[in-house]
Amino acid sequence: MKSRLLTFAALCGATLSLHAQAPPKGFEKVDQEITISTLQAAMKYDVRSFSVKPNAKVKLTFKNPDDLPHNLILCTPGKSKGGDKGKEVIDAVLKLGEKGVEQNWEPKGHPRILHSTGMVQPKKESVIWFRAPKKEGNYPYICTFPGHFELMNGMMAVSKRANPVTNLTYKFYHGKWDKLPDFSKMEPKKTGTLASGLFELSPKDRDNEFGFVFTGDIECPKDGIYTFTVTSDDGSSLYIDNTRVVNNDGVHPAKATKGQVRLKAGKRKIEVRYFEGGGEQSLFVEWAGPGVKKQPLSPGAASGGGSGPSGMLIAAADGEAAIYRNFIADAGSRAIGVGYSEGVNLTFDANNMRVAQIWQGDFMDGARHWNGRGQGFQPPAGDAVIKLPAGAAFASLDSASAAWPKAETRSSEFRFRGYHLNKKQQPRFHYEMGEVAIKDTPVPVAGGEYGHLTRSLQLSAKNAPANLYFRAASGHITVAPGGFIINGDLMISTKSKATIEANELRLPVEFKNGSAKIELTYKWAQ
Amino acid sequence: MKTPPAFTKFSATRACISSMLAATALAAAAPTMEDFYLREEIPLPEGEVMEGASISIIDDKRVALATRRGDVWICDGAFGEDLSKVTWSKFASGLHEPLGMSHKDGWFTFTQRPDVSRMRDSDGDGRADQFVTVAAPWGINGDYHEYAFGTPPDKDGNVWVVLCLTGSFNANSPWRGWCFRITPDGKSIPTCSGIRSPGGIGFNMEGDVFYCDNQGTWNGSSSLKHLKPGGFVGNPNGNKFWEQAPNMGPKPAEPKSGSRIETERKRIPQLVPTAVWLPHGKLGQSPTGIIPDDTKGAFGPFAGQVLVGEQTHSQVQRVFLEKINGVYQGAAFPFLGGYRSGIVPLRLAADGSLFVGTTNRGWGARGGLPFSFERTRWNGKVPFEIHEMRITKDGFELTFTEEIDPKTAGDKASYSMNSWTYVYQSGYGSPEVDKTAQAIESVTVGADKKSVRLKVANRQAGHCHHLKSAGVRSKSGGELWHQNAYYTINEFPK
User: Fold this and answer.
1) Which domains are present in chain B?
2) Which of A26, A258, A452, B199 is a good FRET partner for A231, with 20 to 30 A between their CA atoms?
3) Which residues contact B329 (CB under 8 A, 6 or more apart)?
4) What is the ipTM score, two decimals?
5) Which residues of chain A from 394 to 413 reach within 8 Å of chain B, CB to CB?
6) Are B333 and B224 in contact (CB under 8 A)?
7) Is A179 touching B (CB cutoff 8 A)?
């Protein structure tokens, strides 16, 4: 029996389909494994939709814990619009008449049959290996035992965006809201299945004033912390096992919101709720976790706020610096990115007059802001990104141990006055804190694979304020030969007096004749 | 058998009409832009993406073009006869979408998303090195819609800035939906509230400031609006900052959604009615930059009027403004078209060279190119056009650029008029509503043979009045280059 099937497979090539319990040659390692089980006395498959990549090697295990025999026959997409769920094959089964029993209710050779598990008796299982079709589309699977088809059917989506979401269904609503309503109390306008496992708005029948609730299962490969990102216009939320993980509610343009959750390996219930008020609309879901690199769970690309487009690296001309004023992640809406030829980069946050972050390697990718409308904040393109404390870098404190003022989106105490470029196009930033004028000059230093940075801050004031402090860093700070190690990844050195207070590296500003100076060196810790 | 003679007669008539049509076509083909204006693309440096954001005339040789990516380029030779000889140099980079720029005494003043700044080249190496932030009173939060458009300095040196709503819907960031005046010494004066999504800002000849707002919430159609200091121009989302602007006087009442501007302005004295509707879909759909034609005739017969850029349809519209009972209103006319991408900034040089910068990024545009920089010049031939359209006590007065044929221009059948307005509502846009027909009751040809007075019944305050002058001919028998005009009535002359 086994050898006959192998011969058959060898002859058929493209429609290779095997019932052997041991993997056939070439299928020792598969791209995707899927297990579909019947539900006891329910006349249903537990997986009603799943997705595979085109041409992927697939191992499908079909288990039948039910008390009746069942099979699973995978069919080509129906020609009628929206497919026919394999009904043509069922019609062929009816035509078998008396031969049906002999043939195990399988119209062998029917042109729409791709693969079959054969009839699986109660409490038995069958494994088939096959290559997924090359053509993207929705491929129905059915049980052909008479009378089962109406309830026992499912859909395999062949999609380049195949993903671990199964049984994805949607409920679509009409209504006018400015935040997510309680959909459970409403009657959906329509419902349906998204076999692709992709959260998308395409089933909508209007462009404004509508909502969706998507529910499905997601297979977590390992125990660990998973991150879900939902970018939406307007509001959305994401639930795992009925617990809200992402809250992106309200009326807003495409906006990305992340949430983290610790999950056990296995199937988890995933639910996404969404509403659109008016104007533009978008929904883009992504996840990442142990064993999962950031993976989109929606078609297309995030239209804003998400990981976004890439491929337009901005680089400084040889020996010079490049400036990129834009919305930069963790540096605010008035960010000034500076990329130095020496291989180091920084962003200056002109809302809070601070160096927001430093990093090595590539400077910035312009693709987010230079394609389409350019929504959202762009993170650095390079690596070894070190974030410096949010909020103002200078503060007047009642005492050396007083708490640092809370970070604001934009500190009202400061005024940004611009910058001056030297011949190498490197900026010196000018800003004011009340009567204190500050010139802030970062300088890149070449050396090693990447360089490092020095920074000089010159302060001047007619009436020097007392108790002014500069906060250089925060986090886990240790004293090492030559400087302070911050969180194990940054070493800050200074000749000025520095103290560690409340997990912050603080430098008291000491004016002499109306001026003060702070000099710092920032090196990536080895 | 009476049919044959009748048939013969019919054929003869038809033949007669055909020959008449042919004769007309021979006598005067319908005028086109090429008959009067020369549009030329200015070659750009290879490989550079130069989506137009703002333009500044530096002198009689050089023009600066700021791009949406934040570069500022200087084009030398932009006034030359042979545009293939222009040279480009990059003056600055890394600005944050500078949608407003002017040049004076070696300094560029520019408006970008976060602030109004100045920059100059202090060491003479051809590149800007000194960047000075003048003022940054408003908030931004990373939303692409948070554009800031700025004027050149006005006669007092103030830059006027209009701030798009966040997402074009709300004022969750401080001062979105406002117009500021930024003084030369960096003071910020809140000047108007009610802005939604501007596409450009500029002056008329009198130095009053206007901006274009795009169709959306509380704005039924794209339109040209007057920024009257202390005024509320329609979208109430930004009014929550009104109390922080004591110079603005009492806060306006909340407008009623679903009403009409004409109704609400009677209740809300601060509400400045739309000066001129640019009827959505009929006359473009994304109006942008605004400039006065201050070339004293170097750009054709429309000196003193206002030109408005159009992004989606890649056009330039023409607007005649007049002030009635202290309120601006007037007529919009189609004018130039055929640009290679959507116009955002435009500038006229004193010699009559019109420069436009274009882009189709994020918002599609006609023309087929992603961006271009183009020059348009008048060739000296006067197009036969309605020059001005004024409201009178009983109708409208039209003046023409050329002497008219008194027979056609004096025939009321040569004209037709209908009007409509838009719902003033919190929802997006509006259909044309309250549609009304106006009868042209009589036409009087002016003694100068260059004007007519139309007596019009049933004119409607708050409406856009569409005048079609299909039958009017010039003295020499020529057709109008453009038959359509759109006059917005806010006030009737007393």
Assistant:
1) 42-378 (2.120.10.30), 384-488 (2.60.40.1220)
2) B199
3) B273, B275, B276, B321, B322, B323, B391, B487, B488, B489, B490, B491
4) 0.92
5) 409-410
6) no
7) no
